């Protein structure tokens, strides 16, 4: 990291996102030596009036849990040292007083650390609901910007949901855009920080295998699937207002689609990558009602945080079609659901059948390339081989790259950890640019409005099932054929 004082300010410090994701990610970075310079300080900011120690107590358990193992004494010691870096300031999200105090505290830290080069770097992480983004950004701009003449920066990190539809998202972008330059705004989509999502460009553009096959001549259909085997668990206040399309599909899955479908960027510079993502999104044609299946799991409305007349989908299968030379005619099936039979995120690229087959092996199914984002990162290719033995018969088998086996002992960084480090380093490659976000909203807004108007309704499905059978039927219509083996 660059030298100079670094202040990381987590706004919404006592909320769930901060406790479960932001602070544990900072702790992981600390443990890897990234935040150990004495010029680094972390501030928590929220409305609740609590002390530094209260905040530390609230965070501590999450830090130790985040390692997924029992809390060894070394871990506890590290956590204690890390927590000493964390100070707390309470204040409102729209008044001067708290932000003046915050600025003073940051400034005191900067001066006391007497940073080597006198520069000041301030990273504001908004772990907050988007309704307060505009006022918080305004307060930061008024009171808390880097004031050093000797260099540094001020950056802000914002989380989804960025708005509820095209109009509200554009309004929000406009308000923030008046205060900060695009190079200061980091719109986080944590799927872009996942190891196998970051691998997608390497896979496609650094291997000779894929390029000639990656098109409508060879690929029959592509699925991008997200499943969770648990429901909304008391998050109804948030979820019911947004639903699965805004929660997962419009952001996480659409970002994955971009990386699967875009053309090769001129270089790895963030601008070049964002340009290609925007282009492919602009080529998506309007979604047809008959290519959408929505679902709601039985019992969703029994959650006390959900209104009992809710029409909100907890499941959706949507077919996107890309009108360009590479993808015309290839359905991209985006599927996401809560309370299903498993927890998994994967990409399935299904190839066309071999023309003029002489082995009569179609019953084994087609070639399929699967990229499992989680759990247990893996890539495998289903292919037809000769059944070992005296007979000339064929079976389906796999070329399998399972990360756990192949990269034993290599720690795969958590998405938030990687992305926060990028914000400190000033690398926007794995973030969402304003126009990307706009096109993503353009794709989904008409459909979201039809759901709100009651013109598209969710079908009930059983908890622990695959979702509505209508979704499987739609998938079959899109051309997907079940393969065997894995
Ligand atoms: C979040 C959604 O963005 O992503 C949640 O709001 C979802 O509803 C979560 O559970 C999934 O993230 P991950 O990394 O566990 O797949």
Task: Summarize the structure in words.
The chain has 13 helices and 15 strands. It has 486 residues and is α/β, with parallel strands linked by helices. It has a 9-stranded mixed beta sheet, with helices on both faces. The longest helix is centred in the middle third of the chain and has 26 residues, at 236-261. The radius of gyration is 24 Å and the shape is globular. It binds 6-O-phosphono-beta-D-glucopyranose (BG6). 6-O-phosphono-beta-D-glucopyranose is lined by residues 190, 228, 247-248, 345. It comes from Papaver nudicaule (Iceland poppy). One of its GO terms (cellular component) is cytosol.
Keywords:
486 residues; alpha/beta; 9-stranded mixed sheet; 13 helices; 15 strands; globular; binds 6-O-phosphono-beta-D-glucopyranose; carbohydrate metabolism; Glucose-6-phosphate 1-dehydrogenase; EC 1.1.1.49; glucose-6-phosphate dehydrogenase activity
Briefly say what this structure is.
The protein has helices at residues 16-31, 52-65, 73-84, 96-112, 133-143, 166-179, 195-205, 236-261, 270-282, 403-406, 415-425, 434-452, 469-477, and strands spanning 5-11, 40-46, 86-90, 120-126, 152-158, 185-187, 219-227, 292-297, 315-321, 331-337, 344-351, 368-374, 378-386, 394-402, 459-461.
Number of strands: 15
Main sheet: strand order: 14-13-12-11-7-10-9-8-15
What percent of residues are in strands? 15-25%
The overall average pLDDT, rounded, is: 93
Total of DSSP H or I helical runs spanning 4+ residues: 13
Structural class: alpha/beta
**Range of helix content:** 25-40%
List unreliable stretches of 5+ residues.
Answer: none
* Ligand types: 6-O-phosphono-beta-D-glucopyranose
Family: Belongs to the glucose-6-phosphate dehydrogenase family.
Catalytic activity: D-glucose 6-phosphate + NADP(+) = 6-phospho-D-glucono-1,5-lactone + NADPH + H(+)
Pathway: Carbohydrate degradation; pentose phosphate pathway; D-ribulose 5-phosphate from D-glucose 6-phosphate (oxidative stage): step 1/3
Enzyme class: oxidoreductase
């Amino acid at each position: 990291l660059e030298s100079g004082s670094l202040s990381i300010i987590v706004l919404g410090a006592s909320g769930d996102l901060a406790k479960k994701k932001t602070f544990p990610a900072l702790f992981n970075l600390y443990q890897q030596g990234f935040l150990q310079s004495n010029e680094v300080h972390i501030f928590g900011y929220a409305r609740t009036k609590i002390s530094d120690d209260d905040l530390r107590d609230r965070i501590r358990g999450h830090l130790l849990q985040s390692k997924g193992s029992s809390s060894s004494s070394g871990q506890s010691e590290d956590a204690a040292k890390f927590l000493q870096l964390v100070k707390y300031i309470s204040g409102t999200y729209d008044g001067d007083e708290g932000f003046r105090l915050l600025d003073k505290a940051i400034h005191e830290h900067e001066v006391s650390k007497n940073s080597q080069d006198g520069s000041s770097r301030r990273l504001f992480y908004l772990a907050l609901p988007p309704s307060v983004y505009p006022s918080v950004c305004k307060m930061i701009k008024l009171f808390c910007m880097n004031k050093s003449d000797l260099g540094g920066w001020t950056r802000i990190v914002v989380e989804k949901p960025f708005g509820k539809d095209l109009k509200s998202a554009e309004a929000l972008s406009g308000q923030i855009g008046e205060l900060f330059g695009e190079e200061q705004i980091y719109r986080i989509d944590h799927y872009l920080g996942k190891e196998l999502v970051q691998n997608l460009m390497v896979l496609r553009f650094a291997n000779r295998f894929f390029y000639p096959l990656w098109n409508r001549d060879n690929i029959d259909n592509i699925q991008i699937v997200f499943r969770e085997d648990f429901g909304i668990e008391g998050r109804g206040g948030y979820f019911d207002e947004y639903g699965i399309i805004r929660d997962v599909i419009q952001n996480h899955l659409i970002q994955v689609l971009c990386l699967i479908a875009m053309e090769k960027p001129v270089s790895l510079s963030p601008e070049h990558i964002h340009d290609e993502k925007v282009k492919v999104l602009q080529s998506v044609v309007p979604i047809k009602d008959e290519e959408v299946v929505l679902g709601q799991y039985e019992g969703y409305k029994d959650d006390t945080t959900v209104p009992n007349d809710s029409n909100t989908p907890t499941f959706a299968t949507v077919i996107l079609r890309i009108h360009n030379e590479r993808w015309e005619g290839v359905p991209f099936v985006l599927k996401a659901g809560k309370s299903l039979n498993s927890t998994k995120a994967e990409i399935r690229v299904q190839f066309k059948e071999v023309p003029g087959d002489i082995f009569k092996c179609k019953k084994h199914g087609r070639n399929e390339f699967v990229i499992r984002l989680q759990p247990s990162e893996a890539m495998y290719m289903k292919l037809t081989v000769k059944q070992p033995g005296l007979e000339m018969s064929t079976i389906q088998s796999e070329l399998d790259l399972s990360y756990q086996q192949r990269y034993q002992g290599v720690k795969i960084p958590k998405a938030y950890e990687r992305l926060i480090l990028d914000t400190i380093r000033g690398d926007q490659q794995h973030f969402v640019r304003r126009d990307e976000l706009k096109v993503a909203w353009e794709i989904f807004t008409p459909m979201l409005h039809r759901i709100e108007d009651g013109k598209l309704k969710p079908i009930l499905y059983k908890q622990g099932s695959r979702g509505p059978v209508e979704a499987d039927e739609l998938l079959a219509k899109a051309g997907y054929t079940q393969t065997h083996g894995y």
